[in-house]
Write a structure and sequence with these properties.
It contains twelve helices and no strands. It has 297 residues and is an all-alpha fold. Helix 3 crosses helix 7. The longest helix is centred in the C-terminal third of the chain and has 31 residues. The protein is globular. The N terminus is likely disordered.
Length: 297
Amino acid sequence: MYDPTPTDTRVRPDANRARSQRIGVAWYLALTFGLTWLPFLPAAIGRGTGAAFLMPVAPAVACVVVRLAVTEEGFGDAGLRPHVRHWRTYLLAVTWPIAVVVVSVTAATILRTASSGFALPWGFDKPSSTQLVKLFVLSIAVAPMFLGEELGWRGYLQLRLFPGRPLAAALATGFIWGVWHYPMVLTGGEPTESIAQTLLLLPVSTMAMSILLGWMRSQTGSLWPGTVVHAAINVTSYGLTSLAFTGTTTGTLPASASVPVLIGESVVWGSIVVLGSRSRRARLACKAGSSCQSVCP
């Protein structure tokens, strides 16, 4: 009779690997939250202001420590190679904020959340070609700064949560990632008109974002397209949505813009994932010769 005892070599490798991953995830979360939240402790006890200086690097530090010292698994699946042959994905990673602005302005118009002077398709002000080029170039230039977060969240945690269930992994990682930002919001480090609203909507936004970033990671095998997307969120998307809803690229989004912008992000990111997945399946089917009577897409 089959006896699955600990000495059975048929079950030990998988069991040991699962246990190692659970330990690695626990260590990763403890290190990431500890390194990030501890500098905000003075603000929490009323003895100073919070400091976000470790936020850009804490996930990467935690990832490196866990991979080298805790699980000793190395970086084979970290996705550090850029794989520039996926240049179309990189182009999309830079330019998607244009679509988000148009959809967000449309949503705000339908919901009637904007004041007079706000009009389709650009809201209060249309970006000039020069502004677009500057924002695109800047988002590319600062992308390496966001590798610290992406190496931890997409390069480690999202790969380890809910194996074989990428959507669940993305949603769980996104929620954790959003909550991880809370000290910065609570101490005024995140420009907002409503802290309560931001605390509520931020995890929703990061969950949607994690679906897109995880999809790009799986499609290209690289963290870098998602890193460019992350940079574009903080540079291009912020600048263009601010221009649309405040008339300046450096303005603080009004609370009334939060839901329309979240709708815009979710619609555009979701469309990229759905249409991109369909296109990839069609190309694979064509190459396999199962369905394609003309030229492969």
